[in-house]
Structure formats: structure tokens, C-alpha cells
Design a protein that fits this description.
With 633 residues, this protein is α/β, with parallel strands linked by helices. It is 46% helix and 18% strand.
Length: 633
């Protein structure tokens, strides 16, 4: 669980196997020293603080030298705090030494944990992979048994355990789901296994998130712990590219290597992989060293780690983004500090190079504003204090309103709390994924509004709504949206769906499937903010859009630049060739209108005609054919 694909370990095992190929009874065991805790942090200078193993190797070698067993064995020290040992001694002798070794090492009070996994090489023809997997299984059992343990791989024990699982399954296969689960959790062997496995992440070998939270909170609450503590939240730049080019196996190997790297930090306490390439670590801040210094040093060490790893994936340019936060109030929950570190991390994105910053006074002020806004958003959601405004879409050749875009607005729910502007609440809701809840709320209100007009025999017009990227992570989004529309009793042609170009930056296959499903149900799919990203032309090749909305930045706020005029004309010509209607957003001046007319673009939207307005104001214009706003066109 901890060492799969560790190239350094494999090479060392292979080297020792060749040296020892005549003796078919040699024993291979692996000593895993989790980390070293130095007794006098005051002696440490910032120059001496490093994520290396020099002092750790020095201390552990001193301990090994006390035992004749190790002196007559062949062993090597790995860079990640692990010693691989080959011995010709008998199992009984080794077990006696290992017990004594662990007891003495624990009394030293300079090690967090030592676990040992061992296996007996019974046949000289045994494959390296087989020995490797056996020692991995053994050390996994030792680690999950609570630490300070050794464990010999036993095929008999493995088979018994697998047989008990098989028997349990066979005996209970006729039970209902609820009966099976009830029986499952009451079986001690299975229950203990699940509990052990649940404590660890099976890719990185680090604790699971829930286990990390418990261990970190216990450490923070420990009244005997007087050292300064901090957390970091980090993720990997370019990790998706690595997975795409070199495959998931290499991606997982890199995650394990990074896990070993952060565990080798002598100030490490505990860590976990939250998901994908996101990691959290709890660590100590040594005396005389600032968190800012550790932040700078972390990136320097990470860049060194990446240089060592570069030969595995030369086509990738990787980096790390990290936010750090000192734990200055032990009465505050660990979740709060993780949130602050994560907030710093997010503020550093996007970036092509490694960066790390700390949660300081300015960031604290921004964080408090953000938290206040989040509270306002949550209250507004609970009170359903959101409505939609309509902004008309206009054909400048016929002076007609051809439809409208629904834009969400927050309404007042408390006289002491002013409603937030869309630019303040939408990004936060996308970050927390509450945008999904808000979008469905608006979809329902828009559908109800169209249905009300239908009941009153008023003319209907299509209304477009925005679709967040978060929806495409939900495999049931299409069915949920279609249910709202069909259940309201309106035709799909009256609800148009705007998808921002940036949505297509990831998970393109899942998004394409959803879009094709929506089109098959009769929905109009429109690309919003065309030209604002890097994949526009590629998307036109793959997706049959019903309308393209040109990003407002092409027009600007004043006179249109020469380059932008050329680009706009080119896009208009391209859309005509592809037979896709084009709407230009952000129209604000008469000159822009004239240019678009002359260039062959007839559909526009912008402040020149109307800002987003309450539904009642829009109806006054649309229902009475009062097109005063269009007189100057």
C-alpha cells in the first residue's frame, strides 16, 4: 500500500537478490521509519531545515549497529525513510531481534513510528514482483495494526482470510441488501478489515481524509503538545496532463512518491490525500523559524523533488500550488484552518509555476469578507431570495426583440444586510457548488414564468439560462432539467441553454454526451463568451451549437481596434460558412451597431438597448410593442 512502484526500492531488492542468489532461505524485510522528531528544535537553523533523511539515517544506523543481526546482514537505506534488509538468519532469531529493536527504538522518543514487514524467500526462482508484493502486504498489516509492529507475510494466513471472506459472501449471497450489510458489519473479521482499510488511502498510503481529521484534531487538542502547529493545502500543477500522456499508473506512482516526500519532512505530523492531486499536511513550526520561511522553503524543496522525478515524465511541466495557515487558536476546529489554507491556495490560481503563500493579515481580511458573503448567500438560499431579470436579445435589422437572457439577482431578505451583486455571489457559489442549487431554482422560476404567459395566451419568447460546469459532473443533470421543463408543461424550444466556453476545459467526453442528449430532447445549445478561451475553434468542430455569443471583450468600451475588427469580421464569416447564427454581446454604442450591421451580424445584446431589467419592465416593452429603446437603431 505504501511502496508500489518505488523504483529505488525495486532496484535495491534486485541488486541484493543477485548478490544472494545461492541462498534460497534468505529473509527480506523492510523497516519503515515514519519520521524523526528532534529533541531540541532551538538548535535548528533555517539553513538546516530540510525535507531530507540525513539525520534520520544517522540516528537509525546508530540503533542498527547495536545488533549483530544487522551487522552480518546486507541492507540499504532508501531516501524515503525505509531500510531494506536481507538476512540469512532464522526466522525465530530475527523475530526476537525485531521485538527488541522496536522496544528500544520506541524508548528513544525520536521516532513517530516504526513498522516492519518481512517475507521469507523460500525459492531462489521466486520473482522479484512476488517478493515485493509480499513485503508490501506484510508492512501494510504492520502499519494498520497501530504502528510499532512487525509482520511476516504468511500465505496460509492470507488464504484463510480470503477463504473467510469467500465463505462469508457465499453464505450470505441470498440475503437482501439490508440483511447482507447488517450481517457484514457484525462479522468481526470483515469489520476489522474494513475499519483498517478505511483508515488509509489506497493510492498514496497516507491516511484517509476522515482519519486525518481525527488524528490532527486529537494532536491539536493535546495539552502536552506545546509546539507551534500549521497546516498546508497543496495540489499539483499539470497533474491531469501527466495522467493523460503517461497514464493513470504513472500518475499514481507520482502521487505515492510525493506522499513519501512530504512524510520525510522531520516536522511532519500527519497528512492525507483529500482527492485527486489535493493534499493536506499537519506539521510543526520550529523555534526561530517563520511560516513564511517554511513556505518559501517548501517550494524550493518541491522544485528539487520535481527535478528528481522529471525523467519519469519529461513531456510534463509540473509544479505545486500551496497555501499554509498557522494554528494560532487551539480551540478552533481543524476544518477552519484547512479552509483558510485552501483559500490561500485557490487565490494563487491559475499559475504555470510553483507558488506557496501563507494566511496573513491581508488574506485574513479577505477571508472574513468571503465568510460573511457565504453566510449571506446561505441565508438567501434558505429564504429563496433570488429572482431573475431579463435582458433582451435584438435583431438590429428588423428592430425586433427575438428573446431574452435570464440573469439571476439577489433580493433583500434583511434590512440590515444589503443584497450581494452577481459578481460577488456567483463565483463563491461556483466554488462551493451551491450554484447547482441556485441554477435549478432559477430554471424552475423561468419555466413557471413561461407557463404563466402560456396560460394567459400571451405571446411566448425563448429565454436562455446559464448552465454551470458543475452540472456536467452530475450524470443525472439532463433528466433532472428535462423533468422540470416537461412537468411545467412548456415546450423545450422556449428554454435555451447557454454554456460558457470555459466549461469545456475538462471532462469533454461527459459534456459532449450531455449536450447531445439535450439536443435530442429539443433544447437549443448556445456557446456563451465565444473567443474568451483557447478552445473555441476546436469546439465548433465537435459540437453542433445552435447559436454562438461573441464575447463582449471583442467590442471593448470605446472604438473597436483594427485587430478586433478583423477578428470580428472573420468570426462572422466563419459562422455564416458553418451556418451557425452569431450574436454579439456587450453592444454599447451607435458606432458598434453600425459596424456590426455593415459586417453582416444582425443579432446583438447589450447596454445600448437595455440593461437586465425586472420581468415587469421587460413585459411593458415586449407586450406593448413599445420599442422606444430601438428608435435610434
Amino acid at each position: 500500500m505504501y511502496l508500489y512502484d518505488n523504483i529505488e526500492l525495486q532496484q535495491l531488492i534486485m541488486k541484493e537478490l543477485k548478490k544472494d542468489s545461492k541462498n534460497i532461505h534468505s529473509i527480506l524485510f523492510l523497516i519503515h521509519v515514519e519520521s524523526s522528531i528532534y529533541k531540541n528544535d532551538k538548535e535548528l537553523d533555517i539553513k538546516m531545515i530540510r525535507y531530507s533523511h540525513n539525520e534520520l539515517e544517522r540516528d537509525i544506523l546508530k540503533l542498527l549497529e547495536r545488533y549483530p543481526l544487522f551487522q552480518k546482514s546486507s541492507y540499504g537505506f532508501l531516501s524515503s525513510g525505509k531500510i531494506i534488509v536481507f538476512s540469512n538468519s532464522k526466522k525465530e532469531e530475527i523475530e526476537k531481534v525485531l521485538k527488541n529493536f522496536l522496544a528500544k527504538a520506541k524508548k528513544e522518543n525520536i521516532y513517530k513510528n516504526i513498522s516492519i514487514g518481512a517475507t521469507i524467500r523460500k525459492n531462489k526462482d521466486t520473482e522479484l514482483d512476488t517478493l515485493y508484493q509480499q513485503v508490501i502486504r506484510a508492512i501494510f498489516h504492520a502499519e494498520t495494526a497501530g504502528g510499532w509492529q512487525y509482520f511476516f507475510y504468511s500465505e496460509e494466513k492470507e488464504n484463510k482470510f480470503l477463504e473467510s471472506v469467500k465463505n462469508f459472501w457465499e453464505f450470505n449471497k441470498e440475503l437482501s441488501d439490508s440483511q447482507f450489510i447488517s450481517r457484514l458489519i457484525s462479522d468481526n473479521k470483515i469489520k476489522n478489515l474494513f475499519e483498517r482499510l478505511d483508515q488509509f488511502d489506497n493510492i498514496s498510503g497516507l491516511l484517509s481524509y476522515s482519519s486525518f481529521i481525527k488524528k490532527a484534531q486529537d494532536h491539536i487538542n493535546n495539552k502536552n503538545e506545546n509546539k507551534k502547529l500549521a497546516v498546508f493545502y497543496a495540489d499539483i500543477i499539470g497533474f491531469k496532463t501527466l495522467n493523460k500522456i503517461y497514464g493513470e499508473e504513472e500518475g499514481n506512482r507520482f502521487l505515492r512518491a510525493f506522499s513519501d516526500f512530504i512524510k520525510a519532512n522531520e516536522f511532519y505530523i500527519s497528512a492525507c490525500r483529500v482527492y485527486a492531486d489535493n493534499f493536506i499536511e499537519l506539521f510543526t513550526i520550529p523555534e526561530g523559524v517563520t511560516l513564511e520561511q517554511l513556505s518559501v522553503k517548501f517550494i524550493r524543496d518541491c522544485n528539487g523533488f520535481l527535478q528528481e522525478e522529471a525523467h519519469f515524465h519529461p513531456k510534463c511541466n509540473l509544479g505545486f500550488i500551496c497555501g499554509m495557515c498557522a494554528i494560532d487558536d487551539r480551540n478552533e476546529s481543524i476544518y477552519s484552518y484547512i479552509s483558510k489554507a485552501d483559500d490561500v491556495r485557490k487565490s494563487l490560481k491559475p499559475s504555470l509555476t510553483s507558488k506557496s503563500e501563507v494566511f496573513d493579515a491581508p488574506k485574513k481580511a479577505l477571508y472574513l469578507i468571503k465568510q460573511e458573503r457565504l453566510r449571506t448567500i446561505m441565508t438567501a438560499l434558505e429564504n429563496k431570495s433570488f429572482i431573475f431579470y431579463l435582458q433582451p436579445k435584438i435583431n438590429i435589422l428588423t428592430n425586433e426583440i427575438i428573446g431574452a437572457e435570464a440573469l439571476v439577482r439577489m433580493t433583500s431578505f434583511d434590512s440590515n444586510i444589503p443584497p450581494l451583486m452577481p459578481g460577488d455571489f456567483i463565483p463563491l457559489m461556483e466554488e462551493t457548488r451551491d450554484i447547482v442549487r441556485l441554477d435549478f431554482f432559477i430554471y424552475k422560476k423561468v419555466c413557471d414564468y413561461i407557463n404563466e404567459r402560456k396560460k394567459k395566451n400571451l405571446p411566448l419568447f425563448p429565454i436562455s439560462v446559464n448552465v454551470s460546469r458543475e452540472h456536467f459532473k452530475n450524470p443525472h443533470f439532463v433528466q433532472q432539467l428535462d423533468y422540470i421543463v416537461k412537468n411545467t408543461g412548456i415546450e423545450t424550444k422556449y428554454l435555451e441553454l447557454e454554456v460558457t466556453e470555459s466549461v469545456f476545459s475538462s471532462n469533454i467526453a461527459d459534456i459532449l454526451n450531455a449536450i447531445y442528449d439535450l439536443k435530442s430532447l429539443g433544447y437549443s445549445i448556445q456557446m456563451d463568451d465565444f473567443g474568451s478561451g483557447y478552445s473555441s475553434l476546436n469546439l465548433l468542430k465537435d459540437i453542433p451549437f445552435d447559436l454562438i455569443k461573441l464575447d463582449k471583450e471583442f467590442l471593448g468600451r470605446g472604438e473597436i481596434s483594427k485587430k478586433n475588427r478583423i477578428l470580428i469580421k472573420g468570426i462572422i464569416a466563419l459562422c455564416k460558412e458553418l451556418d451557425i447564427p452569431l450574436l454579439c454581446e456587450g453592444v454599447e454604442t451607435k458606432e458598434q451597431i453600425n459596424f456590426l450591421k455593415q459586417s453582416g451580424c444582425s443579432l446583438v445584446q447589450g447596454f445600448y438597448f437595455a440593461k437586465p431589467m425586472p420581468v415587469e419592465d421587460f413585459e411593458k416593452i415586449y407586450d406593448s410593442d413599445d420599442i422606444e429603446i430601438l428608435k435610434e437603431v
